[in-house]
Amino acid sequence: MWAVRVSEHGGPEVLSWMEVPDPEPGPGEILVKVEAAGVNFIDTYQRSGLYEVKLPFTLGSEGAGEVMAVGPGVTDFAVGDRAAWCQGGSGTYAELCVVPTDKAVRVPANLSTDLAAASLLQGATAHYLVHDTFQLGPGHRCLVHAAAGGAGRLLVQMAKIVGAEVIATAGGPDKVEMARTAGADHVIDYNATNFVTAVEGLVGPKAVDVVYDGVGRTTFDQGLTLLRPRGMMVAFGNASGPPEPVPLLRLSQLGSLYVTRPTLGHYTSTPVELRARAKAVFDLVADSRLEVVIGMRMPMSQASEAHRRLEARQTTGKVLLTPG
Q: What domains appear along the chain, each with residue ranges and CATH number?
């Protein structure tokens, strides 16, 4: 098969489209023909070496496709089923991928394979951020950065579904409109104005219950100043690089703030939790209550270009790779 391989850490140029041996499923595993692979910032972190993965490896953690073979002892999937996953596979930027069944979910009949691949990782992330990391509800006010991106736009929608007030940031008129159509109550163009000043102009100082920050270095410290006393900073990504360390005393001085750095694996740590969260996301997508925008499709052989555009903040919605 053909796959995107990483043999050394670095920029997008280190990605190689090359022929490798076909994988085979072992006990408790399925072999899937990948029809669509999701591109996520975690892929760029692994490629660059920010998140350590043993070299060499096939990149990609999210995908969906048809089950081609099952390993010994597998009873919950059969050849011909459609499966999706967002962690634990052998690398989704490939024509074939081996996935442990405890990391896989069935794609329901009323959902396309593309939408399953585009919604699982970022949809499950938005779900746990809204329902578990900080339990949003009516009367809460949140700030969502990069709200035109795949995760950000889903997060805006999830927050509105549970009744929260949403302030969103995005860069440029087109991305501002993407965030607005997701349902955000207020949208700030951070290319045109300082987002701290803009937020305080809308709701006053220290009036945000929770900040959802997937951007990192360029937004994290300023976001802390917007939180109410005992508010929460949820730093779930590093699109602009990891934030600088924060002295604990600063959290006290700003109002006894909470800071957390969650990751999806800890919120889908069992097959029961993973499948319940996936079902919640897939049901919302199938019922059109959660709109998943596939902003770009590219062949896997052009994965380097997909990474360049993602890291340059030149994408909106979800980026998918297809075999070829």
A: 2-120+268-322 (3.90.180.10), 138-261 (3.40.50.720)
